[in-house]
Amino acid sequence: MLEQITRTDRGASGLLGTLAIGVLSESEETWWNARVDGALSSKVDVKPAPEANALMMLGVAEARAIVEDGVLPSVVSLAQVEGDRLLMEQFLERYLARCSGILLRTTVAAGPKGRK
């Protein structure tokens, strides 16, 4: 889903760095790794890119709510960010317009749970 959202952006994002957004389900962990340096290149993997400047781990319900509604659900079981929070905030605000810095300021800074 993030792949589709970012591919439709034809303008220069002004972002620079590597992001990893993970979704943890009961049975697996899936990561969307993206490098932004004028252009955006990305891939889906089973682990975050080791060079990621910003990482965000979400539960399935949280990921679905952000993509579909642009906000976290009222009850959050997993939404954590580590690394360059400003880069992640700018990415979310650009590509998921209803997301804001509030998302990042209300997450736990301890790092993604379930990371292998």
Rg: 13 Å
Terminal Cα span: 23 Å
Element order, helices and strands? HEEEEHEHH
Gross morphology is globular
Quaternary structure: single chain
For the largest beta-sheet, the strand count, sense and barrel status come to:
5 strands, mixed
Assess the beta-strand content as a share of residues: 25-35%
- Helical fraction: 25-40%
Q: What is the number of helices?
A: 4
> For the largest beta sheet, what order do the strands appear in spatially?
3-2-1-4-5
Counting DSSP E segments of at least 2 residues, the number of strands comes to: 5
Q: What structural class should be given to the helix and strand makeup?
A: alpha+beta
Low-confidence stretches: 104-116
SSE arrangement:
Blueprint: H1 2-7, E1 16-24, E2 29-37, E3 40-45, E4 54-59, H2 60-69, E5 79-83, H3 85-95, H4 101-105
Parallel strand pairs: 1-4
Antiparallel strand pairs: 1-2, 2-3, 4-5
Looking at this protein, list some descriptive labels:
five-stranded mixed beta sheet; 5 strands; alpha+beta; single chain; 4 helices; 116 residues
Could you walk me through the main structural features you see in this protein, from its secondary elements to its overall organization?
- The chain contains four helices and five strands.
- With 116 residues, the chain is of the alpha+beta class.
- Strands 3-2-1-4-5 form a five-stranded mixed beta sheet.
- Strand 1 and strand 2 form a beta hairpin.
- The longest helix is centred in the last third of the chain and has 11 residues.
- The C terminus is likely disordered.
